[in-house]
């Protein structure tokens, strides 16, 4: 490491310009194999018919903004977290609340359901990710069994269990992602490369199960090798923060939603952006995206309180859903694709001092 | 709502892209040729020029962006709620009314991007003016704020009152029409910046996000500077590798989506419905019972899905079990067992690693092992060496080798086998439930969607054994 100040500045400037010129070359290389646009290829595909999706369940119980939710593998339970620190586990089919825990911090921006269905993970402004085993024992206090797993130096923005209950992947406002061993809290791998807060991540449904994608405030979406910690691919075409990333069901592509009011599709084999989902009338950021099971539809929740449904292949918007009274903060399709759940910042004034906030399940 | 730490040079983080887009929108709405048609609005005895009605706005939005009425109303409402349009009558609620209520475009001086965050002093002056102009003219929440501010900045309160009086006096010198307009503009500004209780604040943005631009902040030398050098070194490294990457032609990649989506379409409940019915729509969860992870007789769609890819066969517990049966008949079941053990190692707890590695070695890799797996000699050598220092990735190479072996060899044979064919033949195709609602109409044979009968929100008994945590 250089010790002389001036030398450091030189290195910095030359590195910067080298990075810029490499980026330019990379874009040229990527363009060489781009021989057709997605909507052209999709011309032969039948247009989608009339689209009708309605709210089938409204989950009321959070007293404040819902920030995040995740489905259980049983296809009906969900965990949701909110601004006031409450984390609730619901059987959303019956709308019964099954568990509730209050975190010691506010703004619980991340929550995840363990693959076994036996635990949940959550975190936010406490800079940590904690795991709570779920128990139906009336005598047990859920908070007592809490395990503190991840430690970051800034807020936790996203978390996800890997293929088992034993490992957790986290993304943080400190600009890094990290993989942790749940039992011991040991850091297994850290991922550096984002130039600003990391806001989202998603694990790849690949055969080798070794990569994940993250998106951040540096407008970059980066694909990582979980084993080596290296960035494998990076994409920088968004014009603002990337709030959400989600893999296409085949694992060959992923979609992103950003504050620049667009959603984009990036193909990993072609190594480039292949579609932009945008409309002049949509000017608020997309906060959360997810695919339907076949990958034909992309559901995106926006900060203008709406959910837009996009035809992934044709690039057109299929439908717009109004159902929330404030920004949609989280949206996930259920594991078997029968429905999707949206959470938002809205509240409905019922009586003078009593506020509801809703999570909705659509099918 | 309060501003976070000082902005990191340059544009305030608070200037979200949607604000500049809204501003461009209202500017084009005011275009003399292409904009919303304006009229003069008579209010009592004054005439206010350049007013528009809610309907005008909606029509313009519908026409310009090719959207429906519902969407136009929503968009127009957002413009009003963000203070870019204000009603000239009853400016206490920022809503887009579709009656003859006249609206005007907010002056850029009061735009959210210009004058943000709202200064407490300005608010104090505004409230003081309101208070002076009309005793008891403050709303409850405004009274509270007024008292709070009075306590907080009591030492400069004389200044506040003086300013308020001066502004009121200056306003009196204006024409009535101007006075009215300025009052509405100001009121709208404060409705946006200090919303009454029960009205969500459009200013809320969530926790502060620090965006470090590529230029980075000029910080004194120290850890931050060092990190910057590291950061760029890493980026350059990543970019160099990316340049050397093998890429596939777009046409090939995009064709794959078409194939994937059309193959999966029938399996996508939102696209094609599901049999017997979508539980969320009919409240009948038979669909889940029939597709439970350990269902005795899998459905036809499910068995078909095992043929889509090897990964999907393995991901389904029932599929995997049948595949294991098939491998047993071929005397290669140890391959799948080995693969499962490797998965456990890779995704399991760190504490179990040494024991697990040892167990795998004893069972699958040691010479003369009971369930010895056939790995090529180079991979085997590398693996055995690696076992000296066990870690969760030590079996990755071996696992991949066996996975590929199964995928290229056993899997295709499985799909052609009698075992699989029988499974397909015996698979269940559930009967349709009557009065089902299909969210999607793609094929003519699906009946047109009947109106969904939304259930009463009585508590429902959880049925089916699928959901116990």
Automatic annotation (TrEMBL), chain B:
Residues 441-469 are annotated as: Disordered. The keyword Cytoplasm does not apply. GO terms for cellular component: cytoplasm; neuron projection; plasma membrane. PROSITE patterns: DEP (PS50186), RGS (PS50132). The keyword Cell inner membrane does not apply. Residues 447-459 have a biased composition (Low complexity). CDD domains: DEP_RGS7-like (cd04450), GGL (cd00068). This is Regulator of G-protein signaling 11 isoform X4. It comes from Tursiops truncatus (Atlantic bottle-nosed dolphin).
């Amino acid at each position: 490491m250089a010790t002389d100040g001036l030398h450091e500045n030189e290195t910095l400037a030359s590195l910067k310009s080298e990075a810029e010129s490499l980026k330019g070359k990379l874009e040229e290389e990527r363009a060489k194999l781009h021989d057709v646009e997605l909507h052209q290829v999709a011309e032969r595909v039948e247009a989608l018919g009339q689209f009708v999706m309605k709210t089938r369940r409204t989950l009321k119980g959070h007293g404040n903004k819902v920030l995040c939710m995740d489905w259980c593998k049983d296809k009906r339970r969900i965990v949701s977290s909110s601004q006031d620190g409450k984390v609730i586990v619901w059987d959303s089919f019956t709308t019964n609340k099954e568990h509730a825990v209050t975190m010691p911090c506010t703004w619980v921006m991340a929550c995840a359901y363990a693959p076994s269905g036996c635990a949940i993970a959550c975190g936010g402004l406490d800079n940590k990710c904690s795991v709570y085993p779920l128990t139906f024992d009336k005598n047990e206090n859920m908070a007592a069994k809490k395990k503190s797993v991840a430690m970051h130096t800034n807020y936790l923005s996203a978390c996800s269990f890997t293929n088992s209950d034993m490992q957790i992947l986290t993304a943080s406002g400190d600009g890094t992602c990290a993989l942790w061993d749940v039992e011991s809290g040991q850091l297994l791998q850290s991922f550096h490369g984002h130039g600003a807060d990391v806001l989202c991540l998603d694990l790849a449904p690949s055969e080798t199960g070794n990569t994940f994608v993250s998106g951040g405030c540096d407008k970059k979406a980066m694909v990582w090798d979980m084993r080596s910690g290296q960035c494998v691919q990076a994409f920088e075409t968004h014009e603002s923060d990337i709030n959400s990333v989600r893999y296409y069901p085949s694992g060959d592509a992923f979609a992103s939603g950003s504050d620049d009011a667009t959603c984009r599709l990036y193909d990993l084999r072609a190594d480039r952006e292949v579609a932009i989902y945008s409309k002049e009338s949509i000017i608020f950021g997309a906060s959360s995206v997810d695919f339907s099971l076949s990958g034909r539809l992309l559901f995106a929740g926006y900060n203008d309180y709406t959910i837009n449904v996009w035809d992934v292949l044709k690039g057109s918007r299929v439908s717009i859903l109004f159902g929330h009274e404030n920004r949609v903060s989280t949206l996930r399709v259920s594991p078997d694709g029968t429905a999707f759940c949206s959470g938002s910042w809205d509240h409905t004034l019922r009586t003078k001092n009593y506020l509801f906030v809703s999570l909705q399940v659509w099918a | 709502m309060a501003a976070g730490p000082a902005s990191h040079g340059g544009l305030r983080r608070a200037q979200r892209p949607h604000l500049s887009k809204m501003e461009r929108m209202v500017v084009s709405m005011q275009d003399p040729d292409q904009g919303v048609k304006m009229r003069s609005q008579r209010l009592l005895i004054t005439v206010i020029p350049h007013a528009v009605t809610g309907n005008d706005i909606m029509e313009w939005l519908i026409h310009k962006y090719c959207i429906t009425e519902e969407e136009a109303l929503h968009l127009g409402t957002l413009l009003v709620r963000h203070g870019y349009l204000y009603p000239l009558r009853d400016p206490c609620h920022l809503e887009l009314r579709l009656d003859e209520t006249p609206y005007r475009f907010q002056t850029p001086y009061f735009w959210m991007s210009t004058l943000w965050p709202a200064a407490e002093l300005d608010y104090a002056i505004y409230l003081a003016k309101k208070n002076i102009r009309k005793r008891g003219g403050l709303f409850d929440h405004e009274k509270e704020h007024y008292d709070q501010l009075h306590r907080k900045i009591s030492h400069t309160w004389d200044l506040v009152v003086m300013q308020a009086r001066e502004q009121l006096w200056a306003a009196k010198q204006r024409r009535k029409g101007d006075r009215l307009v300025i009052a509405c503009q100001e009121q709208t500004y404060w409705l946006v910046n200090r919303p009454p209780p029960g009205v969500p604040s459009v200013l809320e943005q969530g926790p502060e996000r620090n965006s470090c631009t590529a230029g980075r902040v000029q910080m004194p030398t120290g850890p931050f500077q060092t990190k910057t050098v590291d950061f760029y070194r890493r980026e350059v490294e990543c970019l160099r590798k990316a340049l050397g990457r093998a890429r596939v032609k777009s046409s090939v990649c995009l064709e794959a989506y078409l194939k994937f989506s059309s193959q999966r379409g029938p399996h996508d409940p939102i696209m094609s419905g599901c049999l017997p019915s979508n539980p969320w729509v009919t409240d009948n969860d038979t669909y889940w019972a029939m597709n439970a992870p350990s269902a005795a007789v899998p459905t036809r769609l499910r068995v078909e899905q095992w043929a889509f890819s090897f990964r999907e066969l393995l991901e389904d517990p029932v599929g995997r079990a049948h595949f294991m049966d098939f491998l047993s008949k071929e005397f290669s079941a140890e391959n799948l067992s080995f693969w499962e053990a490797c998965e456990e190692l890779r995704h399991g707890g760190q504490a179990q690693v040494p024991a697990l590695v040892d167990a795998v070695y004893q069972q699958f890799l040691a010479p003369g092992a009971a369930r010895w797996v056939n790995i090529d000699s180079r991979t085997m050598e590398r693996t055995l060496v690696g076992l000296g220092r066990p870690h969760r990735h030590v079996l990755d190479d071996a696992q991949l080798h066996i996975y590929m072996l199964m995928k290229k060899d056993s899997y295709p044979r499985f799909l052609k086998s009698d075992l699989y064919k029988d499974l397909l033949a015996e698979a269940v195709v559930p009967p349709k439930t009557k009065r089902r609602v299909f969210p999607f109409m793609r094929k003519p044979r699906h009946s047109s969607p009947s109106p969904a009968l939304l259930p009463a929100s009585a508590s429902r008994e959880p049925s089916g054994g699928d959901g116990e945590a």
